[in-house]
Design brief:
heterodimer; A: 384 residues; alpha/beta; Peroxisomal Thiolase, Chain A, domain 1; 2 domains; nine-stranded mixed sheet; two-stranded antiparallel sheet; 14 helices; 11 strands; globular; B: mainly beta; five-stranded antiparallel sheet; 2 helices
């Protein structure tokens, strides 16, 4: 096994890109990453995406994106793990480079959500859940998270407003990120008054759907210096799975795949949660932020929400999260989100995060969650 | 979902038929080929009583395609008295009347229609448990 480093990053702003299609967005991110790395060729392309077939009527993204990016002929394949598709694509690229079979690999992720603005988007997202036993009952993705949030509030005696800190922190951090969708702060009062989506989840518990694409270039760490002085090493990479449906979990309030993938990533990197300088977690809904912090060892069971209340998650706190806005305020281009998280963690470790910079960041963690917790990918990145 | 995809689930949708593990005795719903507790493959059919209680619930105002006519509607995780959780809609109850721990029972209802000429899908929903008079 070889060590693997990130030598280039690229991203488009997250938002509504009415004039850019799936392939254009993917190309924008890939071109930016290749220019950043100073590479003109690659051995393979792994494309993370969830909804291209459902929303844009387009499957078979590997060759489409490879060809459009001027890479016709290379090995290329789409990687799908619902909202976890992005980090899953990086995981595949990591395996390819670590194994010694490929040297220069592009991991790109793209989601084009505004090609449909109606119920098909809700239905498409619901396909991440169990079609036979969840979706048929009219469940939506926000509803699955609402079921978890209500049970959590009941089990641990937590009020809805105790989650406000997650959204307030995310929005405050996004102000400094030029690629974020919502670059404005919100107040606790606004959080309390936000319209209900699926109770107890309201609009400001929820991340916005959007278009976006992001990409990273991987190569063996031993070759990274040929390309850049600012390579970031992937110190830990792991993926774990859980039951697809919430009702099949032995404990619905515990993200088993978050624990499993985080533990493996910690072990590989030789670090503990206390060593992590910042954590790009998957705050698709505020309840997911709390569950993620608990399963990855930053909070005890039932106490993840306390880190939002006491300020531990803020940029100057014990474990800064969503340092560039997170899913909540940078935006959540579903299948692309996992690579945005890794790109942002890399910006932090390079010291290129601008107004969002966490001083002296050396170790960053990114965790991407697919579905209601069935696919979870955790990466730990280290400044060289 | 097509005709066959719904038809093959008739025992689950209409009668809540799951499985009991021949090895460890766990009651399993939805049915699966490998026991999620002991990983043994041998299962026998088991019909659940349809009795349970609300484990969690939410009300959907922005429904997926095909459920517009029902909105707003309440969905729940129901903990069956034999152990498993099941995802289902609640019926015959207003959203504000639902609470965690509330006793509920299975009924068979229309779940959705695929347009004026499409399938009409029936299956289990849960309602507040009726008191004996």
């Amino acid at each position: 096994m070889r060590d693997v480093s990130i030598i280039g990053i690229g991203q488009t702003p997250v938002g509504e890109h009415w004039e850019r299609s799936l392939r254009h967005l993917a190309y924008d991110a890939i071109r930016a990453a290749m220019q950043d790395a100073g590479v003109e060729r690659a051995d393979a392309l792994y494309v993370g995406n969830m909804l291209s077939g459902e929303i844009s009527g387009q499957s078979h993204l590997g060759p489409l994106i490879a060809d459009f990016a001027g890479l016709r002929g290379i090995e290329a394949i789409k990687v799908e793990g619902a909202c976890g598709s992005g980090a899953a694509a990086v995981r595949m690229g990591y395996l390819a480079v670590a194994s010694g079979l490929q040297d220069i690999v592009i991991c790109a992720a793209v989601e084009k959500m505004t090609d449909d603005v109606g119920g098909r988007l809700t239905s498409g997202l619901a396909q991440a859940a169990d079609a036979d036993y969840e979706v048929v009952h009219g469940i939506s993705f926000v509803a699955l998270n609402a079921l978890l949030m209500r049970r959590y509030m009941y089990a641990y005696n937590v009020a809805h407003e105790d989650f406000a800190g997650f959204s307030i922190n995310a929005h405050a951090n996004a102000v400094g990120n030029p690629n974020a969708m919502f670059r404005r702060a919100i107040t606790e009062e606004a959080f309390k008054k936000a319209g209900m989506v699926a109770d107890p989840i309201n609009l400001l518990d929820s991340s916005p759907m959007a278009d976006g694409a992001a990409a990273v270039i991987l190569c063996p760490t031993e070759q990274a210096r040929e390309f850049t002085e600012t390579a970031v090493r992937i110190a830990g990479s792991a993926m774990a799975t859980d039951s697809l449906s919430v009702h099949d979990r032995h404990d619905p309030l515990w993200l088993q795949a978050a624990q499993g993938s985080a533990e493996r990533a910690y072990r590989q990197a030789g670090v503990r949660p206390a060593d992590i300088d910042l954590f790009e977690l998957h705050d698709a809904f505020s309840i997911m932020a709390a569950l993620s912090l608990e399963a990855t060892g930053f909070a005890e069971r039932g106490k993840g929400w306390q880190l939002a209340v006491n300020g531990d998650i803020r940029p100057d706190g014990r474990i800064p999260v969503c340092t560039m806005g997170g899913l909540k305020a940078r935006g959540h281009p579903v299948g692309a989100t996992g690579i945005y998280q890794i790109v942002e963690a890399t910006q932090q470790l390079r010291g290129e995060a601008g107004d969002c910079q966490i001083p002296n960041a050396r170790l960053a963690m990114a965790q991407n969650i697919g579905g209601s917790g069935a696919t979870i990918v955790t990466h730990i990145l280290e400044r060289e | 979902m097509g005709i066959a995809q719904n038809w093959r689930l008739r025992n689950q949708r209409y009668a809540l038929v799951g499985e009991v593990c021949n090895d460890c005795g766990s009651k399993i719903f939805p049915p699966r080929d490998v026991c999620p507790y002991c990983a043994q493959p041998a299962q026998a059919p088991f019909q659940f009583s349809g009795q349970g209680e609300v484990f969690s619930h939410t009300t959907i105002y922005n429904p997926p395609v095909g459920f517009e006519e029902f909105a707003p509607y309440t969905v729940a995780l129901v903990k069956l008295e034999e152990g498993p959780l099941v995802t289902a809609q609640l019926t015959d109850v207003e959203p504000e009347e639902v609470s965690i721990g509330q006793p509920v029972e299975m009924v068979t209802r229309k779940i959705r229609e695929d347009g004026p000429e499409g399938l009409i899908i029936y299956g289990y929903k849960f309602r507040p448990k009726l008191e004996e008079v």
